[in-house]
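Journal club prep — side note

Before the paper discussion, L.F. wants everyone to see what a predicted structure for a comparable chain looks like in token form. Sequence:
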Amino acid sequence: MESSFVYILYSRRLDRYYTGVTTLSVVERIENHIEKKYGKLNFTQKADDWELYHSIKCEDFAQARRIEMHIKKMKSKIYLQNLKSFPEMVDKLLAKYRNN
């Protein structure tokens, strides 16, 4: 089974976060964002200083996508910071969106 990840990037220049999902390695995905491989209209094109803030390894792409959507719906920098600071929050998300 292919690994899937939810990843959160941070740009100091923009002071903004970006949340995405990938089946690539997280490092490869970040490199693709920095190299602007995802088109001119992609949000990450606005900066070239993206760094990995946090990542979550998921069971599969479906779970990763549901967790990504959950995080985006929160629309909160504090929520993103808490995900990194409190691993139990990630555990709860993984359990909530587990494929049964």
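L.F.'s comment for the group: The chain has a mean pLDDT of 91. Keep this in mind when we get to the figures.
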